[in-house]
Amino acid sequence: MKNENNTIKYVTGNMFTDNQPEEGRAVPVIPVNTVGVPGAGLAKQWAIKYPEQAKKYKGFCNQKIFRDPMFIKSGLSPDKDWDTLCMLFPTKGDWRNPSTMKQLKAGLAVLVRRKSMFFNKDDYVAWPKLGCGLGGLKWEEVRPIMLEAIEQFEGTHLIYGEKQ
Predict the structure, then answer these.
(1) Are 93 and 35 within 8 A, CB to CB?
(2) 3-state secondary structure of 46
(3) Residues 6-160, CATH architecture
(4) How confident is the model at residue 47 (pLDDT cuts 50, 70, 90)?
(5) Of 26, 133, 136, 163, which sees the most CB atoms within 10 A?
């Protein structure tokens, strides 16, 4: 059921810098594995941009406490005056394996159940096509599942990449 305080837009560009709101920034959703290795793709870009967060993520994985999507933040951003915040979204167990629909559905189900903790009407959230790039999932299969979940959240949701 679509939330009345929800907007979904398809955009292109760099999710860390492009299509940002006038105030603040869109919270990027970063597809990761659960072993703590941000070795390629968007996860690697995130780890380079936010090394403090990457270190925390690796620690959570080493302690085996990272299984569900979670927010992670570091100190003040060096170029802006607001805190850095990202959402880590596990799409696979081991980094050497492909992403799985099972993991994707489980993560989205957690977000739907806890949506009031994660999203409000003033939020901007930058979503990649979860699990589709280097994870190997097909967007035509992921899209309806992602949209069904995202439509239930408040806020503005930017999906990076072409709509089809």
Answers:
(1) yes
(2) helix
(3) 3-Layer(aba) Sandwich (3.40)
(4) very high
(5) 26
Cα(18)–Cα(154) distance, rounded to whole angstroms? 21
The answer to whether residue 7 scores a pLDDT higher than 60 is yes
154 DSSP assignment: -
**Are the C-beta atoms of residues 8 and 19 closer than 8 Å to each other?**
no
Report residue 125 as tokens: 């959230």
Cα(12)–Cα(159) distance, rounded to whole angstroms?
Answer: 8
Q: Which residue has the tokens 């941009």?
A: 49
Domain ranges within the chain, ordered by starting residue: 6-160
Collapsed DSSP state (helix, strand, coil) of residue 86: strand
Please give the model's pTM, rounded to 2 decimal places. Answer: 0.87
Residues sharing a CB contact under 8 Å with residue 43, sequence separation 6 or more, in sequence order? 30, 31, 32, 33
Q: CA–CA separation, 137 vs 104, rounded Å?
A: 10
φ/ψ bin of 48: left (φ > 0), alpha (ψ from -120 to 50), beta (otherwise): alpha
The 10s digit of each residue's pLDDT in 64-99 is 888 888 877 765 555 544 457 888 999 999 999 999
